[in-house]
Amino acid sequence: MYFTAMTNDALSFAAIISEWGKPADFARALGQDDGGDLARKWRRRDSIPQEWWPAVIDAARRDGKPVDAERLLRAQRNAVSRKSGDGGDHAPVIESPDPERPASGYDASSLEALDAQAQSVKAVFNQAGYVPVEPPTMQPADIFLNRSGEDIRQRTYVFQDPGGEEWCLRPDLTIPTCRMYLERDPEGHSEAKLCYNGPAYRYQPPSAGKPVEFLQAGVEHIGGASTPEADAEIVAIAIDAIQSAGLKSFGTTLGDLGLFGALVDKLDLPQSWRGRLKRHIWRPAYFDEILTRLTDAESMPVTPNTNQALLAALDVMEPERARDVVQDVLALAGISAVGGRTVTEISERFLEQAAGAASAELSRETADAIRAFLAISAPCTTAVDEIAHVAKAAGVSLDDELESIARRIDVICGKGVNRNDITFDADFGRKEEYYTGFVFELRVEALGASRQVAGGGRYDGLLKSLGSPRNVPAVGCAIRTERLLAAVGLEARS
Question: Where is the stretch described as Disordered (predicted)?
Fold first, then answer.
């Protein structure tokens, strides 16, 4: 439930979030690992779910932020009082168990429970025709640094071996599984259904209270048809798997990153800006920054004269040629990485400066249309109409794309999902850069920051970026099995 700043006695939650600067910084302060996606929604709505208030208070005290903790606690007590018997129809507050791996590891009973759950999940995967694989834990670092979203890229463990090669501990199992597929079929012509269950690794700040090692069980359908039916089949497998483990109640969120690309392509924008916005949708904080800069020519940084000739030359080149030129210049200068950015990111920034120097200011109407689109998060029964309304107001039509989304929702509901339990979120799916279209998650709100128990989507361009000569249709999902076990236990006790 959301409590919003609607009365004189209410708090300005947007102001609270702003005390940390960017939404991503506020999210990290709360231990969220979504790159600030939730915090951005809360700021737009001037709302923070009541179950997060204790974490906000703790973060404010820890970070020395001027948040009126006593006022927030008083509001929280009033809210709980309303829940507990003053005529409200809200469920009682249920304290959730720790949904993550203990820092000291698992005892025998926990291992037994995880193993039993793994067998149930594996049986669902096998029945659907998926074959088990076990990708290497160590992976070439550049593969993840150049293909993961900003949040995961910053939390990948990278190290150098004695021979000078850079490696990483896999932050997920999708890319390693795709690499295994390409080792067997470099041309990407065959169809494969692969499944896995193993650990992944992501850095967490000590204040987050989350493990750096966690378990993922998942499936990847590579080389099949790129259709709404195939997308829905993956959702059905994920649902069957978590239900086989005993989970009964959960929510479903859908998104489609291809819809954002379609909107940008149809808006009245210079071609260079279309590519720029689509390229940085994966970096929410930076995306917001460039959208603001593009609507205010006076805020655009003035490029030093020493770079003007290079920028002018880059602006008239084909994008791939321009990118090669910048990377050659960086190589000649002996630059491999700056401030945690890869050479690819540095070269992209040069190209953006070249495009910005040659472009006019973005209209505020266009920027507002983009922001309005990304702000849509609603039940699937109304979300399609809301998106159509935003598109129409911007003078474009997304009818074909929305028809495809409606068809996918119909197919998913045909698999037994209640339409009223599905939310469509236009902003969802910006963490993994390799997703190209449909994305989804299954969540248990009582787990708080660890609410996502399963998620996945379509990544038709990933195999080509890994070495295939063509795009290979692919869709998959992963289950956070430790969270699933905690959710089942919580449900059993409630």
Answer: 77-107
